[in-house]
Design a protein that fits this description.
The complex is a heterodimer. Chain A is of the alpha+beta class. Chain A is built from 33 helices and 19 strands. Chain A has a 5-stranded mixed sheet with strand order 1-5-13-12-9. In chain A, helix 14 packs across helix 16. Chain B folds into 2 domains: 38-178 and 243-396, Alkaline Phosphatase, subunit A; 187-241. Chain B has helices spanning 3-13, 22-28, 62-65, 85-88, 107-116, 129-136, 191-204, 216-233, 235-241, 248-254, 258-272, 290-315, 381-392; strands at residues 38-45, 70-72, 79-81, 94-100, 146-148, 166-167, 276-282, 322-327, 331-332, 344-345, 349-354, 362-364, 399-401, 407-409. In chain B, the strands form 4 sheets. An 8-stranded mixed sheet of chain B has the order 6-5-7-1-8-11-4-12, with helices on both faces. In chain B, strands 2-3 form a two-stranded antiparallel ribbon. Chain B has a two-stranded antiparallel sheet with strand order 9-10. In chain B, helix 9 (235-241) runs antiparallel to helix 11 (258-272) and helix 11 (258-272) runs parallel beside helix 12. Classes of the chains: A alpha+beta, B alpha/beta. Chains A and B meet through strand 18, helix 26, helix 27, helix 31 and helix 32 of A and helix 1, strand 6, helix 7 and helix 8 of B.
Chain lengths: 819, 422
């Protein structure tokens, strides 16, 4: 039996933000499949509402057909539709082979049946795409009527308000597989801004996000294929709606439901996660062991392994709140700021190779600036504001003062501290931000988790963005300039001359190493600066369709963007960071990929994400609050070991999924595992020598970092950081000269060697225990001790045997994974 | 298969806008059928002078044509530089492609362009040829499929790190022990020691026992650890990298210089079953003293080593299955500068192709009378890449679901240069 859940009468799934359902519901027009069932009708189909969506649904404007940028068979349509002008022009033009013969016309209002757009899909003439509809079908009638009535274009695109999908959610009973289930039909109503309502079900495209849970056919009928949950996504015009579909576990029917009794608790991470598990009939795994928790949380919060002493005292601690206290302690460590500065540099694209000049220096400044803000726990919105609104000059500075200030950062003799700057301009001074289109893509991905790149060239296939939306958004960034501000050109030239810098044109010149040397010696050299150029004429631009902004003169276009982002109504800004932080603690985001916020890629736990996002904003964007909410939850502290109900669950956080250590953490952890006993603290706290710390930028691009997937931050995608295992990583850990050399020069092994040489008796069991604590952060089992003791006993050198043991431990899965 | 795996695979097939680990992506997408071909890329780093090698202009004024004279070759009508006599005797094995042109006269950008066949952009990082080959063709269990002699020349880009090259970390030098990064065991460690360590590891790596197939990370680690172990400990890969096994006569044939040793290693690796080898022959950035550098060192060495590599592959019957491309990142200025050098010049360059389906014994394309630009439209690095891929048996129009969220065509703007392949 199938239950459909109706939220009110109709589920409302909004396609763009802030589109409330109309208060007064107009009559809904029946669908085109009914209205055009008969050939004889007076109705003229509309090009935007009917003809283009029908072509989309028939697949005509797909990438491998006429939507290809080269077109197909001479006909080119806009990819995924929405360029109505071009599509109309293409359809009404003569076919390219076009002689004067009437039958060469794509549309021929005089003789509609001779039109190629009918003859081709009816396969009356050769069509590589095959037959697309049958003679006498409503599709045939619809296109024929459009042609007959003059094949009219549209004058002004109609604005779609939203799509209403009924039912709003589909829950298949757990016995759906055992009895042949009836397909569940979806009904989609398009609501236009002018108040028109039309059943557009036969004009939609449908997609399932997981066809092992549900499949959807051409007409929007859902068939359950297995337990689990996912979404079916509906596309029409530029609207996108996602319908949640869920089927509880087959073998854990009603018995498991509501055992978690989540609804009665106050909102928390666990409550939302358990509520969903209840619905699915999944029992979460137990909470992980103390040792597992300590290693996991140390790595996730500080990018650092715990020390043997830390492990032992944590395990010995009997107090109930020790996990929470540990988390509080970790959040106060400098390594927390270091590791998360690294992550924020990932998200924002801090890349030495993209800087217009002095890439290494500027990217280190960038990193240190973010590090300092995280040390101060500056609210996230404030931190972003100080990046987004940065200019070269801080308020009121003259060019001279600016040049003096920047030169001072590079001075050898008591340099000024860049991290003390109020704002951080390097985000904008990269060459990759020069073109407004590139800046728009980067900005949307960095701060809003939106991927606009598709819309640069065509209607986004899965998101509501059109090329027009993209173009307007990118125009905001047109007057953010890096160069010489025109009124400062004389001073710039003067300084340039003194420094021996040849200035080409008026845009200034990159600082070369010989000029840097002058700055290092304490001289003032001329720097290009980040400034806002004048906009030639005032214009009104739309901010991704949520309000328009008029910009003129030297208005800083970033200001309205910043206010818009931090407006409580903005659906992306806070959500993007909340979801990214979540994704750092788990193997996936609540929305995944975490930087693809898009109605066709809905969250697995919408209530949880909304609650966390709202609260985070309400807590003044306090990142540490967010870390606490996540890391103190049972959900984060689950064991990786599955139970009978959750083996197959990877999207509902019912257990921990083992994750490979990030590149920087691998590097630091190997070092820490091998260091001399009296260096165990230093090696962790001296951030200047850590891959997660100040070395982060310098190590970028080195062999070890490349092998373990540290991102170059060269493209706008969180996916650039790769945490998958590869062959080269295994080769690295087993036999790379670097690891080999680290094992050879291990301070701890040298200690052992010294004692061995001096004939001091060594306690093999204690050595073995320490090796385990150093690497996998837990004491060994008796069986493990016995095996290691056997290895030590068989060797004529304890040092050599311990080297083998450390090598082996570093090569276990347990070392390279958090579990 | 677990639910999530199915789920991910299916999502991947739907356009890649949703989560899909690169590891799974690799096994998900329909790869090419294995063409059985291998490839060698000889990269002449620095940008070799085209007009002093394979595209000479004896009739140009002396300040353009330089000091070298052309010589006739085995193929009537084809002339190349007098310092390449052995290659001249083997032009019947080569297709010389002239009139390749682009606009990136910078080492970094030019290299990226020539090594990927796509104009570099800040938005997408394109994969190097070898990464595509290792993505498309299966590797032997105990051999890496893509080896870069010395350091990698460009990386796997959007295909993901698992398709990066195994780089040796140094160039082989005659008479000195050759250490292959990650493969050669350190002097004090024997294969037996290594095996014993492995046994110890296997015995203590038990945390996930009983759940080996539950999670991809665990499964992947097991698989790759095994493969790495085989590569490091197997005689096959150790032999392949062991140049001391070459007879003196072969060493003399290739030359004891770096070029000779690197090309000899490339041939050995292909013979062993490696699918793609990058050979990096450097020193071509001749801003000064171009003619002495080329005439006395680089050209004789190139002549000796490249001709030896062709002979060797042919004698082992491997030339017909090995696609060879020899190229730099650009050509050099038509006019000799005041330091008897030539500077960067990307409007004209040349390349060589050999092996597999190359229709050898011909010159394709041409430059103008001063070798300053192509005569006619010329060819782009994209075209060259498309030709090379085609010759390896990989369709240059293959599409990948790149992790940046849209499908990317392998070589978007190029097509195989007409006439080069038969």
């Amino acid at each position: 039996m199938i239950r459909t859940v109706l939220a009110g009468m109709l589920g409302v799934v909004t396609c763009v933000l802030l589109s409330p359902p109309p208060a007064l519901r107009a009559e809904t027009v029946a669908s085109v499949s009914e209205r055009f069932a008969a050939a004889e009708t007076d109705e003229t189909p509309d090009f935007q509402q009917h003809v283009v969506p029908l072509l989309g649904r028939l697949g005509c404007n797909g990438r491998s057909c006429h939507g290809s940028f080269q077109g197909r068979g001479g006909l080119q349509l806009s990819l995924f539709g929405y360029d109505f002008l071009m599509d109309h022009r293409s359809l009404t033009a003569q076919a390219s082979t076009g002689g004067e013969r009437q039958s060469d016309r794509r549309v021929d209002p005089q003789r509609p049946d001779e039109s190629l757009v009918l003859q081709k899909p009816l396969l009356q003439v050769d069509h590589e795409g095959g037959d697309r509809f049958a003679e006498g079908s409503w599709e045939h009638h619809l296109i024929r009527r459009w042609i007959e009535d003059g094949a009219q274009p549209i004058t002004q695109p109609r604005v779609l308000s939203h799509l209403e999908v009924e039912p709003a959610e589909v829950v298949f009973d757990s016995d759906a597989a055992s009895s042949p289930s009836r397909p569940v039909p979806l009904r989609v109503v398009a609501v236009w801004e002018q108040g028109l309502r039309e059943d557009v079900t036969p004009l939609c495209r449908f997609r399932t996000n997981d066809d092992s849970v549900v499949t959807v056919d051409h007409d929007g009928r859902l068939t359950s294929t297995g337990p689990g949950d996912t979404h079916v996504v509906v596309f029409y015009d530029n609207g996108v709606a996602a319908v949640p579909v869920l089927r509880p576990l087959n073998d854990a029917p009603n018995r498991a439901r509501n055992v978690n009794d989540a609804q009665t608790q106050s909102p928390s991470v666990d409550r939302f996660v358990l509520a969903k598990l209840d619905k699915l009939g999944i029992q979460p795994s137990d909470v992980c062991t103390d040792a597992e928790f300590l290693r996991r949380v140390s790595i996730d919060v500080c990018g650092t392994l715990p020390t043997p002493q830390e492990v032992e005292s944590f395990l010995a601690d009997r107090s109930a709140d020790k996990r929470t206290r540990k988390l509080d302690e970790l959040l106060e460590r400098p390594s927390y700021a270091a590791w998360w500065a690294n992550k924020l540099c990932d998200f924002t694209g801090c890349n030495p190779n993209q800087q217009a000049e002095l890439g290494q220096e500027t990217s280190v400044q960038w990193y240190m600036w973010v590090y300092q803000r995280l040390r101060e726990n500056v609210p996230y919105d404030e931190l972003v504001r100080r990046i987004v609104l940065a200019k070269g000059r801080e308020s009121g500075q003259s060019y001279q003062e600016y040049a003096r200030q920047v030169s001072a950062y590079f001075r050898d003799d008591s340099p000024a501290d860049f991290a003390e700057r109020e704002t951080m301009p390097h985000y904008w001074t990269r060459r990759s931000m020069e073109k407004p289109e590139d800046a728009a893509q980067a900005f949307a991905q960095n701060f809003l988790g939106l991927r606009l790149q598709c819309a640069q060239c065509h209607k986004h296939p899965f998101a509501p963005w059109t090329q027009g939306d993209f173009n307007e958004f990118s125009r905001f960034f047109e007057n953010v300039e890096f160069g010489v501000e025109p009124t400062s050109l004389p001073q710039y030239r003067e300084l340039a001359e003194q420094a021996g810098l040849t200035v080409r044109g008026d845009d200034g010149t990159a600082i070369r190493s010989d000029i840097l040397r002058q700055a290092q010696q304490g001289r003032i050299v001329p720097w290009r600066e980040l400034y806002i150029d004048a906009r030639p004429q005032p214009e009104s631009l739309s901010l991704l369709r949520s309000g328009s902004v008029t910009l003129q003169g030297n208005d800083d276009p970033r200001e309205p963007i910043m206010s818009w982002m931090t407006d409580p109504a903005n659906p992306w800004f806070a959500q993007a960071i909340v979801n990214r932080v979540w994704a750092s603690y788990f193997h996936v985001g609540i929305i995944d990929p975490p930087d693809d916020l898009n109605p066709a890629n809905p969250p697995s736990h919408p209530e949880l994400l909304n609650w966390l996002t709202r609260q985070f904003a309400g807590q003044n964007y306090d990142l540490k609050w967010l870390h606490r909410q996540i890391a103190t939850s049972d959900t984060y502290q689950r064991s990786w070991k599955p139970n009978a109900t959750n083996r197959d669950d990877r999207r509902n956080f019912s257990r921990a999924i083992p994750r490979r250590l990030p590149a920087e953490v691998v590097y630091d952890s190997i070092k820490q595992s091998l260091v001399a006993s009296d260096k165990l603290t230093d090696v962790r706290t001296d951030l200047t020598r850590r891959a997660i710390g100040h070395l982060s930028m310098r190590l970028a691009g080195t062999h070890a970092m490349q092998v373990f997937g540290k991102p170059d931050r060269a493209v706008n995608c969180d996916c650039e950081r790769v945490n998958e295992p590869t062959l080269l990583q295994a080769v690295y850990l087993q036999n790379d000269p670097l690891v080999d050399q680290q094992l050879e020069s291990s301070g701890w092994l040298q200690e052992i060697q010294a004692r061995e040489d001096a004939g001091v008796a060594l306690d093999p069991t204690r050595l073995i225990e320490t090796a385990w604590l150093r690497t996998v952060s837990r004491p060994p089992t008796e069986k493990e001790i016995a095996r290691a003791e056997r290895h030590l006993a068989a060797s004529d050198s304890t040092t050599k045997a311990m080297r083998d043991l450390l090598w082996s431990l570093i090569n276990t899965k347990e070392f390279i994974l958090t579990k | 298969m677990t639910l999530n795996r199915r789920q991910l695979l299916q999502v991947g097939a739907l356009g890649g806008s949703l989560s899909l680990s690169q590891f799974l992506r690799s096994s998900a997408a329909a790869g090419h059928a294995d063409s059985g071909r291998s490839a060698i890329l000889v990269f002449l780093g620095g940008g070799p002078s085209h007009q002093d090698t394979f595209d000479m202009k004896p009739d140009a004024p002396v300040e353009y044509r330089g000091q070298f004279k052309p010589i006739s070759t085995r193929v009537p009508g084809i002339q190349i530089c007098e310092h390449l006599p052995r290659l001249a005797q083997r032009t019947d094995k080569l297709a010389i492609i002239r009139g390749i042109t682009h606009s990136l006269a910078d080492h970094g950008l030019g290299t990226r362009y020539l090594m990927t066949g796509n104009l570099p952009t800040p938005v997408v990082s394109y994969p190097m040829y070898g990464s595509v080959v290792s993505r498309e063709f299966p590797a032997a269990a105990d051999l890496p499929s893509f080896v870069s002699i010395d350091r990698p020349v460009e990386g796997p880009g959007y295909l993901g790190t698992q398709y990066g090259p195994m780089s040796t970390g140094e160039k082989p030098r005659y008479g000195q022990p050759f250490r292959v990064r990650g493969i050669t065991l350190d002097g004090s460690l024997t294969v037996d020691d290594f095996r014993s360590r492995h046994q110890l590891r296997a015995d203590i790596d038990t945390a996930f026992d009983g759940f080996e197939n539950l999670d991809d990370a665990v499964r992947g680690l097991d698989r790759f650890a095994q493969q790495a172990y085989r590569i490091i400990s197997s005689p096959r890969s150790r032999d392949a990298f062991d140049l001391t096994r070459e007879p003196e006569q072969q060493i003399d044939r290739f030359g004891r210089h770096e070029y000779g040793q690197s090309t000899m290693l490339a041939a050995r690796l292909i013979e062993a079953g490696v699918r793609f080898v990058t050979v990096l022959l450097e020193g071509w950035d001749t801003h000064m003293d171009n003619f002495n550098t080329l005439g006395r060192e680089l050209l004789p060495q190139l002549d000796q080593s490249l001709s030896a590599m062709l002979d060797r592959l042919e004698s082992r019957g491997l030339l017909e299955s090995t696609s060879i491309l020899v190229t730099g990142e650009f050509g050099r200025t038509p006019k000799v500068n005041s330091n008897a050098g030539r500077d960067h010049w990307s409007r004209a360059m040349c390349a060589l192709m050999a092996g597999a389906s190359v229709s050898a014994g011909q010159v394709v394309g041409a430059t103008d009378d001063k070798a300053a630009g192509p005569a006619g439209e010329g060819f782009t690095p994209d075209d060259l890449a498309a030709t090379f891929f085609q010759n390896i048996g990989i369709d240059p129009k293959t599409e990948y679901q790149a992790s940046v969220g849209r499908p990317i065509t392998l070589v978007r703007d190029g097509s195989p240069i007409p006439g080069v392949l038969s």
